[in-house]
Amino acid sequence: MVETARGPVPASDLGRTLMHEHVFVLTADVQQNYPDEWGDEDVRVADAVRRLSELPEHGIGTIVDVTAIGQGRNVPRVKRIADQVPGLNIVVATGIYTFDEVPMFFWRRHREAMTELFVRDITEGIAGTGVKAGMLKCAVDEKGLTQGVERVLRSVAQAHAQTGTPVTIHTHAAGQHGPAILEVLKQEGADLDRVVLGHSGDATDSPDYLESMVQAGLTLGMDRFGIDHFATFQDRSDLVVELCRRGLADRMVLSHDTCCYIDWFEPGSLDDLTQWHYLHVSQDVLPYLREHGVTEDQIDAMLVRNPARILAGKAG
Length: 316
Known about the structure:
Elements lengths: L15 E6 L2 E2 L2 H6 L7 H17 L2 E6 L9 H8 L6 E7 L8 H4 L5 H11 L11 E6 L6 H17 L3 E5 L6 H10 L7 E3 L9 H9 L3 E4 L10 H13 L6 E3 L6 E2 L17 H12 L4 H16 L5
Parallel strand pairs: 1-3, 2-10, 3-4, 4-5, 5-6, 6-7, 7-8, 8-9
């Protein structure tokens, strides 16, 4: 069974799954103190319901909302939205998103404090909603394994080892931090079969590096389709084609890393990303992959079988 915002569902019922998305990405302290930036809550929720309701119409059965602490996670809000989109499963995450230091809340607390809260989110539920996390999330960006980042990674790996809940890791592909991440995961007893190396699709010039990460046991997150600031549509798609040609479809998942609203950027500054939306994979990426030799079985692996394997955890 896989935990979702409306309760557990069998992994076999997930359907096509986008493994790295968001509903909202927000700066919680700013939104709390300057609520006019966010605007009308009901309007934002209605817009999210409208956008997400389009996914089942295009064959998507599940998204994983990998919004963690540091990205404005609000599970009561996500549950409110999920209840209005019955055709779509939304898996929520626990974890911490930081590129450097841990949040001050954890800085002077005992080292197990993060792990304990992650486990509670997984086993008891989040913020009184009863919604349990089905994914663990952390980040290793350009700075690599700083002291704070390593502490979060170890806490995530420990919660994974205790609960069987899968892990997705935001990475800086150009930094090729995979080997260092692997070392920590192995030390903490992680099941590498259920760890996604996120944003691997940014490494369009490094297929050999990505293949080595697959050989080590990880799954590649080809999960930024539509974000052309890092790599073009063709380069991202051609990388998937090449890795499928190498027989690695069973170790890739597809997604966009998009959201209904993000407050991290100046309004209008992302308007040039015209394909950065939840339907880009279905409408544009899959036709391109098919035209370039990717088979239906390989597509099924990346969108159905691999997500089900990863999300099922030890229960699978």
